[in-house]
Amino acid sequence: MGDGQKVYGRIAEAFLENRKVELSFAEAGDLTPAFLNAAVGQLYGSFLEEFIRRNLIFTDISPEDELILKRVLERAKCYFENADHYRKAVREVMGGEDE
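User: That's the sequence. What structure does it adopt?
Assistant: Structure tokens below.
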């Protein structure tokens, strides 16, 4: 997850400078949902989906990892579109305030 956060930081920085990003998985080992959530899933909390779609290109990804990536992105979009609902549900289950 720490490596994913580093990747997210680099992508977000490029996006803020209005640059396109090509994310290659050529040298990547096994991709985990935790890494992908940190690296690209959280982009949907900071940038519009259309902007991400136009400016982020994935290359050199295996068909198996592409399926994992698609699931992560769909869940991230759903979460950030309904973040208040999810936070409320967590508060109800866990009790207390969401920060």
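The chain has a mean pLDDT of 89.
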